[in-house]
Amino acid sequence: MREKTFYTLAVHAGDDREANFGALSVPIYPASVFAFSDADDGIAIHNYEKDGYFYGRLGNPTQTALERAMAELENGEAALALASGMAAISAAVLTIVDSGDHIVAPESMYSTTTNFLRHIGEKFGIETTFVDATDAEAYAAAVRPETKLFWIETPSNPLVAITDIARVAEIAKAAGIKTVADNTFATPFNQRPLDLGVDAVIHSATKYLGGHSDLTAGVLVGSAEIVEKARHGANKFLGGNIAPQVAWLVLRGIKTLALRMERHNLNAYALANALTENPKISAVYYPGLESHNNHEIAKRQMKGFGGMIGVDVGSADAAKVLVNRIKVCTFATSLGGVETLIQPVALMTHATLSADERAKAGISDGLLRVSVGIEDFNDIRSDIFEAIG
Ligand SMILES: *Cc1c(COP(=O)(O)O)cnc(C)c1O
């Protein structure tokens, strides 16, 4: 049989019809408790000597179906589904580092990840050096004897900066350091970091995997060593488990992931190009543009450039005017859903950073983050161009 493409994989990932009476949709198991059939069986399952389920926080067949699907799509050995992207991020980090260890991470990325790394620095003495991640060698320069983790986020939130995944993974391997990539913006349709050498990938499934702005979830995928340690550690102790109803919704979203991403890619590529020609726009950030500083790396490691664009309209006031005027696009935070969402970055998601930190991360006052949806491109384009005035 020929190798399945992503389009086919996405539709069938996680299927187990034999176990489910032929059902095309995996059943939702809301049970928080599963009975044991006899003493030996119960003891073996409870002590993880035998596969099975016994308590809601520790998994159920719906969650397992999502985990199988994500392991397939990211080409990982194992996956753990969690309650949010931050549950996946904290599980990954706390699985790999101990107090006194050191992390290297991008100075420009999802601001709650930045703040989480600061938080564990203050609380547990786990220090992070924030580097310019568009230069892979900056990771090497920041290594200390106690460095245990390289964090990657590419394309990054909100500037869609690109990190050379293969090069950072290579530097890490040579130094015995683990690498984790936040693949939320790209999704496995556009980029598979595990194939490029990282040890694990995390997702905010709240975004493209779910795809319909109707759930909060996260996934950790990667080596069985990291994933199983997270399952029996962070997930069990911190309790960030995913609800079975939500796991089912993510699975349903994944079935159309390839189609949605194809359209997100097309619309964003066209919009980024159109915006570069508008004289009122001071900068457009999109990995698919030749003007993007790491366009060549993006071309090498991504199949498509994704649905996220950074647009600088020059000032905070101009950003406010635009979000007040849009009619087809929606003024909202978050991203990755079917609808186009626009948000002023400096005033909102990255307002928790100081002005200095924002400047260092390249986030100007007029920066808008555009999550380009799957609506008709001409409707999106004319709405934004009319709002720019
Ligand atoms: C949204 C987001 C997260 C956090 O995910 P939640 O599901 O909100 O916890 C992490 N990384 C990136 C890149 C994100 O966009």
Give me the secondary-structure topology:
Blueprint: H1 6-12, H2 39-46, H3 61-74, E1 78-82, H4 85-96, E2 102-106, H5 111-124, E3 127-131, H6 137-141, E4 147-153, H7 165-174, E5 178-182, H8 187-190, E6 200-204, E7 218-222, H9 224-238, H10 244-255, H11 257-276, E8 283-285, H12 295-301, E9 308-312, H13 316-325, E10 330-331, E11 341-344, H14 355-360, E12 367-371, H15 377-388
Parallel strand pairs: 2-3, 2-4, 4-5, 5-6, 10-11
Antiparallel strand pairs: 1-7, 6-7, 8-9, 9-12, 11-12
Keywords:
alpha/beta, 40% helix, Aspartate Aminotransferase, domain 2, 7-stranded mixed sheet, 2 domains, 5-stranded mixed sheet, binds pyridoxal-5'-phosphate, 389 residues, 12 strands, 15 helices
